[in-house]
Amino acid sequence: MRRGSAIRLRHAVVLLGFLASGASGQIAPNLDWRTIKTQHFYVHFNPATEGLARRIAANAERAYVELSNEMHPPRGTIDIVISDDVDLSNGSATPTPTNRIVIYASPPVSETALRYTNDWAQLVVTHELTHIFHLDRSRGIWALSQKVFGRAPLLFPNSYSPSWLTEGIAVYEESKIAGGGRIDGSEHRMIARASAIDHRFPPIGALSLAQGHFPFGETAYSYGSLFIDYLARTRGEAHVREFVDKSSANLIPYLIDIPAKRSFGESFLRGWKNFSDSVGRSIRAESTEPLMVLTSTCSSALSGRRTVTSPETLLRSSRASSGTSRSRVRSPETVSAVTRSLVLATTVRSPDTVVKRSAPVRSRVSRAPLTVCALAGSVYGGACDIALACEEY
Ligand SMILES: [Zn+2]
């Protein structure tokens, strides 16, 4: 989304939907556009994407009903555009000038965190529709202002929320309603737990889409969603809706701790401290458990293009590919081989274990000031995907 002023650009960044990537493509206006009308949506598509559009239309109505039990429904009919103009998986949502969603017709084949789902179309439309439910909500002086001045971008109080909050609520709901998703997947937990192990758990003020270190923009999604999930589990799920309602009448929308205290019973700052402590406790508790061999969920043979034979090779190859190395692994033996070469261990319990064990090994081998790697594993289509990202500090 390319906008003119700096303020509007900030809104565009906040409203980016499904992934940390800021890439977007211009939707071709000269195609044979058609529309499916449902009770709450207009789904716009061209003939090449009709199959996906029909799935999205049905999934959107289902998500609308489910989300209406979670939050106050948005106003008016919602436009959904199916765009097939870029080769990446993403989506976006904005409440202005009307409620509208764009979904890219590219499944998340290269995004490991998004693969933990039964139906990607359900996942993405639930995520983006959560943004609409959250951002459209306007009460008090904001609702009155919109009656006078219309749906101007600056008159939506929840659009001033930090990115971790906006994306955290959307990822929380995508898992709760669509099933699977990034709360239930392994990658976000791996990121949080690995940072706790490394004593690098970020402060709440550093959870930005513009984060310059690993996991970069994913910071807002991963920590934000786990934090909202933590608050819902410990304070009660109903308080998420209560928070959205109270923040939508907040006179100074940047003061988010005011509605947080009134809904969750504590400030976000205090809640974040409790959340980070709980992650630390879970790691200490798990470290006393015996290791188990990573088993059964993976089957067949290595189909990756790169053969990893040693930690040195792994580091060299990951540096050569701009800090990220991905291998598709399909057998317990291969997983064991890769992890053995990475951490010099034959058994692993989880991706967290690999991260936990890998740091001292890499330090000795690479002699770099500090190389932090993160390994994520997730099961998709019967295969076990392993993603490794390394960064030198
Ligand atoms: Zn989003």
Key structural traits:
single chain; 393 residues; Neutral Protease, domain 2; three-stranded antiparallel beta sheet; globular; disordered N terminus; disordered C terminus; binds zinc ion
- In what range is the share of β-strand residues? 5-15%
State the CATH class of the largest domain.
Mainly Alpha
Report how far apart the termini are: 32 Å
Say what the CATH topology of the largest domain is.
Neutral Protease, domain 2
Task: List the ions, cofactors and other small molecules found in this model.
Answer: zinc ion
Ranges with pLDDT <50 over ≥5 residues? 1-16, 288-393
Question: What is the multimeric organization of the chains shown?
Answer: single chain
Helix content: 40-55%
Shape: globular
pLDDT averaged over residues: 74
Question: What is the CATH homologous superfamily assignment of the largest domain?
Answer: Neutral Protease Domain 2
Rg over CA atoms, rounded to whole Å, is 22 Å
Q: What is the number of helices?
A: 14
Structural class computed from helices and strand pairing: alpha/beta
Number of domains: 2
Main sheet specs: 5 strands, mixed
How are helices and strands ordered from N to C?
HEEHEEEHHHHHHHHHHEHHEE
- Under the CATH scheme, the architecture of the largest domain is Orthogonal Bundle
